[in-house]
Amino acid sequence: MKKILIIEDEEGIRRLLRYDLRQMDFEVDSARDGREGMEFAKANKYDVIIIDWMLPYYSGVELVESFRKDGIDAILIMLTAKDEESDILEAFEAGVDDYLTKPFSPRELTARIKAHLRRAIIQAQSHLIEVGDVRIFLDEHRVSIGDETVELTKKEFDLLVYLLQNENIVLSRDQILTEIWNYDYDGDTRIVDVHVFKLRNKLESSSVRINSLRGVGYVAKRE
Questions:
Q1: pTM of model > 0.70
Q2: In what order do the strands lie in the sheet with 208-213?
Q3: 150: closest CA among 164, 168, 166, 167?
Q4: Of 48, 81, 79, 51, which Cα lies nearest the Cα of 65?
Q5: What beta strand segments (E) does 53-125 contain?
Q6: What is the H or E stretch that residue 90 is in?
Q7: Are the C-beta atoms of 54 and 33 separated by less than 8 Å?
Q8: How far apart are CA 150 and CA 140, in angstroms?
Q9: Given this model, what pLDDT does residue 183 score?
Q10: Are residues 41 and 5 in contact, defined by beta-carbon separation less than 8 angstroms?
Q11: pLDDT, tens digit, for every residue of 33-72?
């Protein structure tokens, strides 16, 4: 049974999410503030952690940064009323896997959780992706160029996996958003551009190139 932690200070939302997720046969814990959420996350192994941004004691972003620093590899989904592009980018830079603005649809949230869990299962079934001198060790969540390890954020890692799994195939920004971010929001394609830019810089010394087709999308190729 998959295990989910909800970190949310609004009792009504906690109660609603607990009910919906338990109806789907998830095991669910809930915390009412950042400090309690931190304790739960460090004491238990969760598949998914749902995190409100504005929390007492620790903010959602502070929790995400701490979880990733401590090697917690759960799927992290941010719930928040903050919807500026800068807020979304800050959350993804911290290490979230998905971002949902309030008010939100519980059905949409559960659909996204299922999509993330399906992707995690698919990745776990394969151990290595190799394109040119770039190697992705899926079970170790590690990327190397030759003998050198490349440090990637979780979102950069997921993006690279998707691009290399589709080598020589042009992927639109909308396709990338759907696969990696699982949401549709005006202006979101710029998030793809930002992450591709950073990924290109980190792969500069490799034989892999991420080319852009203006007005279409991106394609990964080896030189």
A1: no
A2: 171-172, 217-222, 208-213
A3: 164
A4: 51
A5: 75-80, 98-101
A6: helix 85-94
A7: no
A8: 13
A9: 57
A10: yes
A11: 999 999 999 999 999 999 999 999 999 999 999 999 888 8
Q: Which two tokens stand for residue 197?
A: 């830019």
**pLDDT on residue 185:** 45
Q: Do 101 and 108 meet the contact criterion of CB atoms below 8 Å apart?
A: no
Mean pLDDT over 70-88 rounds to 84
Both tokens of 90, joined, read: 């800050």
Residue with tokens 């095991």: 27
- For the record, the structure tokens of 184 come out as 């549709």
Residue found by looking up tokens 């979304």 in the block: 88
pLDDT at residue 187 above 60? Answer: no
Q: Please give the single-letter amino acid code of residue 63.
A: L
**What is the distance between the alpha carbons of residues 133 and 115, in angstroms, rounded to a whole number?**
30
Q: What is the mean pLDDT of the chain?
A: 87
Q: Packing angle between helix 34-43 and helix 60-69, nearest 10 degrees?
A: 20
Alpha-carbon distances of 28 from 45, 46, 47, 58, 74, rounded to whole Å: 12, 9, 10, 21, 14
Which pLDDT tens digit goes with each residue over 94-114?
888 888 888 888 888 888 888
Residue-level length of the chain: 223
Domains contained in the chain, CATH given: 3-122 (3.40.50.2300), 126-222 (1.10.10.10)
What per-residue confidence (pLDDT) applies to 110?
A: 85
Structure tokens at 59: 């903010």
SS3 of residue 184 by DSSP: coil
Q: Are 122 and 158 in contact (CB under 8 A)?
A: no
